[in-house]
Specification:
By secondary structure, the protein is mainly beta. It contains 3 helices and 51 strands. A hairpin with a 5-residue loop joins strand 7 (184-189) and strand 8 (195-201). The longest helix is centred in the first third of the chain and has 17 residues, at 3-19.
Amino acid sequence: MNKRNISVICAVLALTVLLSGCSFLGIGANKLSYSSASIAGQVESVSGKTITLTLGFISGGDDASGTTQDSEPSAQPQTDAAASAAPENTEKPAQTDAPDAAIAPPTVSASASEQPETTQSPEQSEPEAAAEPENNGEDSAKTQAGAYFTLGTTTAQLKVNDASALYNEDGSAAKLTDIKSGAILSIDFNAKGGIDKITIRQVGRLVVSNGVSYYAANVFSADDTVSGGAYDSTKAGENTIILDNGAEVGFTGTAISRTSDSGSDSGQSAAYGVGAALLAADGTAYVEDSTVTADAYGAAGLFAGGKGVVYAGDTTVDTSKDVSFALAASGGKLYAWDVMANTKGDNSPAVMCIGGSAAVIDGGEYNTEGADSPAVCGNSAITFNNASLTARNSAAANVLGGSVTLFDSKLSGNMADNEQNGTTWTVGVYNSGSASGGDTASFHMVGGSIESKNGGIFYTTNTKSDILLSGVEITQSENSNYFLRCTGNANKAGWGAAGANGAECGFTAISQKIDGNIIWDSISKLDFYMQKGSTLTGAVKTDQTYSNKVGGGHCSMYISEDSKWIVTGDSVVTSLYSEGDIVDAKGKTVTIKNSEGKTVVKGSSEYTVTVQAYSSPADFTNAAKLPVWTELQVQRPSGLKK
């Protein structure tokens, strides 16, 4: 840092000491005992002629307030995201066929001035969850073109007795009523310490929250209420709105838009909410009867960051470009009521939650148009009630850890025939290798419906999974070749070690009708429970395509007295514990033989079930328990009227 910078910063520090504990007020019109300097501050509140400011610095661009234009930001981010979180005015990032790059951890180069890269899996075709960032030490934020404001910690008051000193950025006269909470003011003093000019600046903000650097068009760092109005952002990688410093802000009837031809780094947008229209980084947002639009690569709609909470009600959220999520959380909490969420780009889930976040969503519609864009994706706790989720060119749901729980909801998927890891599916439960949401990935659904327009229904691989269905109406596609596939995978995307990346799945059916085959292999473990009048119509088959050994895995079936297995083809089960009927479609008893060929149950059907062990009764101790909506729901806060 040069001597000029040091002297200017020392002068500003002297000013903050002078102002600490006293008012920013003087005698006469706009009088202050500070001479020949410029300072800047963010408006916290306006009461009559008195404006409360938090002082800071304007840096970059053609001029600066509080420091020189070649000085560095005062904030020093503390995570590996820091260098890349500061956006550049660059062209849209080159796109690949790798949606994993959309939700992958960032990689920061040794120099803060170099552009970070995201890790990519060239053959991956379904969105993944971001791995948690590691702390790799300090990295200075990279400055973007144009001026930006860095918030300090000193507060002061300014009394505007002479409105003729007020100006807009373009030099036109301004009024006191033009100064709103969150606005940035620069204040120019003359040699006698009087205020010559107060300018309402149109500059971005540099915000350091949870150790990550962001640029934002609008920052709320104190409690506020916004009714109506519009907020927008057009700079590359910039957030339209950021909530920080624990602020609670309500937005009602507000239009929030994010538009840019340049985009955000995909890893940063997923892991930290860089470039989102609204980011609650460290604060709580209440968004009601509003519209949120994001038309920029990597730009999410509503994003709950590490210490952030977002409540949304009766709001429409639309995103247009690739890697753009409508509702997202990474470490934060997300709650929604009757939201209409739509994404059009590839690799753009309507709802994405990663990094230990949580979402509870009641009502509304969540739709995706792009390829590799499930309606819901993540590795955290996500709950839906009475919602409609439709992926028109993708799997409907990808559970990469954590849990997805749905009550009385509609789920529809249409994954393309891309032979992703050997199959296509409607609901995928797997560990991608890039992130984990705990020891077990869970998908539970009570009531409602699942529709497959292409491929099978459930696919689980390279993870421990827990799947439960109760009273769900299931519509299979015409080309479906399985209901549940519990096997290893082709390892096209690095999902575990080839030949040893099987699944460990507990599947529970309660009052559930199931049509389709069950497929398992010798590197997987499947425990299939049927209770309370459940019916399976299908065969249970082995497929060793992705296994490197014979033996070691198992498929155990547990059938209650009031449940039934209607066998449609010769089947192989390791252990069969049945109290119910095992018949074919004509009602004929199916023959059960052990692995040595000895008949255990003699039947008249043309089909045979081969087992290693057969007995009754069935033990349901380890079956999944039915979830209850009232135990998971979140009450709509008073800040969002119904």
